[in-house]
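Input structure tokens:
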């Protein structure tokens, strides 16, 4: 099928869409939890795959399914990463204007608690958290930079998050 698409066969492109659209939709729905966004992502993935195949980007045509899956995973992850970086949209209400100063004070206090909790953590755990949450790196990238395995990075991240949560909760009670 990939060779036929590279050679400009529109029927092969239709076959590709029929074969993979539903799988991509399921994957996108599960990851985004938003059916409309998932539908948009399906279109983006299929367009990206077809364009790549037309340009001969897939060398081993036997790995078409893995290529489509990888493209879908990457585009969905890019969407989710971008969504996390956008500020949360909240409607402006009368209450928001009145309680704004109190909210700012609470947020500043929480930030100080988190900073104190991070100062009490080990250097490696703190590095893993910063690289994950602030720099947005994946476990594989962090593992490569720190000379660890991705599994160790995931474990340290989970342990560090639990530690910060526990420390913040303890400090906020006192």
């Amino acid at each position: 099928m990939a060779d036929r698409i590279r050679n400009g066969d529109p029927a092969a492109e239709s076959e590709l869409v029929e074969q993979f659209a539903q799988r991509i939709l399921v994957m996108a729905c599960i990851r985004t939890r938003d059916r409309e966004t998932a539908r948009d992502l399906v279109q983006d993935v299929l367009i990206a795959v077809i364009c790549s195949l037309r340009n001969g980007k897939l060398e081993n045509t036997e790995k078409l399914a893995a290529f489509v899956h990888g493209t879908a995973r990457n585009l969905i992850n890019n969407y989710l990463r971008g969504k996390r970086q956008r500020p949360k949209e909240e409607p402006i209400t009368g209450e928001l204007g009145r309680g704004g100063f109190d909210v700012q004070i609470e947020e500043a206090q929480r930030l100080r608690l988190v900073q104190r909790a991070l100062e009490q953590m080990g250097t490696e755990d703190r590095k893993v958290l910063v690289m994950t949450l602030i720099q947005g790196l994946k476990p594989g990238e962090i593992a490569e930079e720190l000379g660890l395995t991705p599994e160790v990075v995931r474990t340290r991240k989970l342990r560090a998050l639990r530690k910060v949560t526990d420390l913040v909760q303890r400090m906020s009670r006192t």
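The chain has nine helices and no strands. The chain has two domains: 2-85, 99-173.
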